[in-house]
């Protein structure tokens, strides 16, 4: 079945880069998403990448996709205290299973 | 453009009662999906509605149901509430077409006592 895995915690110093990793199992995934969740809030769409791409950059965010290894990463450059949140990766299959399958989330803590 | 709205934001119910949650998608979006978020199970897919039809369903018991209206607003109903139904219920809005971005609302926090 489908499974998405992430490490649970990551701590970085303000100004450093953060890299959040994710692995997935569904080779027919068509899109891979990154969402951010702050305490008490819903999910904020940060970025997504089509499965036929290997990289996408959007301001401070860089997404890398290694389809062979089914590995996805999100790099946040110049991490700020406001980036502290839980980050979820999710895979989406636009075929019969039109649903997002989420990882367990990575709690990012940015230290001053 | 207004984002996804969910009402109510917070709800407290007792076991055995039923509850209805509402989601209004982004204007022009025809697909609404519902997700349950709990500390133990994480984010799990409930169902998706597109043009008033349920298009996909997750692995939840029949106590969980939904519907979509002609204006794309969707409601989710949970009958005979159990303590384990306490969760944050999130809805996601999208166009429903192939190349799609899924936008979430702020969620409804349901507490069952």
Q: Can you give a write-up of this model?
A:
With 112 residues, chain A is mostly beta strands. Chain A contains no helices and 11 strands. By secondary structure, chain B is an all-beta fold. Chain B is 0% helix and 53% strand. In chain B, the strands form 2 sheets. In chain B, strands 2, 4, 5, 6, 9, 10 and 11 form a 7-stranded mixed beta sheet that branches. A 4-stranded antiparallel beta sheet of chain B has the order 1-3-8-7, with no helix packed on it. The termini of chain B are far apart. Chains A and B meet through strand 4, strand 5, strand 9 and strand 10 of A and strand 5 and strand 10 of B.
Features of this protein?
heterodimer; A: 112 residues; mainly beta; six-stranded mixed β-sheet; five-stranded antiparallel β-sheet; globular; B: 113 residues; seven-stranded mixed β-sheet; 11 strands; 0% helix; 53% strand
Summarize, please.
The complex is a heterodimer of chains A (about 110) and B (about 110). Chain A has strands spanning about 5, 10-15, 20-25, 30-35, 45-50, 55-60, 60-65, 70-75, 85-90, 100, 105-110.
């Amino acid at each position: 079945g489908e499974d998405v895995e992430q490490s649970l915690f990551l701590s970085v110093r303000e100004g450093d880069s953060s890299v959040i990793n994710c692995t997935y199992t569904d080779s027919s995934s068509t899109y891979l998403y990154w969402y951010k969740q702050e305490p008490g809030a819903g999910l904020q769409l940060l970025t997504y990448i089509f499965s036929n791409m290997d990289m996408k950059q959007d301001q401070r965010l860089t997404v890398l996709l290694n389809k062979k290894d089914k590995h996805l990463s999100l790099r946040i450059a110049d991490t700020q205290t406001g980036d502290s949140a839980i980050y979820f990766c999710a895979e989406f299959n636009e075929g019969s299973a039109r649903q997002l399958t989420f990882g367990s989330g990575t709690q990012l803590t940015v230290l001053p | 453009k207004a984002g996804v709205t969910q009402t109510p934001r917070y709800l407290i119910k007792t076991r055995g009662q039923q509850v209805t949650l509402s989601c209004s998608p982004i204007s022009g979006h025809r697909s609404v999906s519902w997700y349950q978020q709990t500390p133990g199970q994480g984010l799990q897919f409930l169902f998706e509605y597109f043009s008033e039809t349920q298009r996909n369903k997750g692995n939840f018991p029949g106590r969980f149901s939904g519907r979509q209206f002609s204006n794309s607003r969707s409601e989710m109903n949970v009958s005979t509430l159990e303590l384990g139904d306490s969760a944050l219920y999130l809805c996601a809005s999208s166009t429903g077409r192939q190349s799609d971005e899924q936008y979430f609302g702020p969620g409804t926090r349901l507490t069952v006592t």
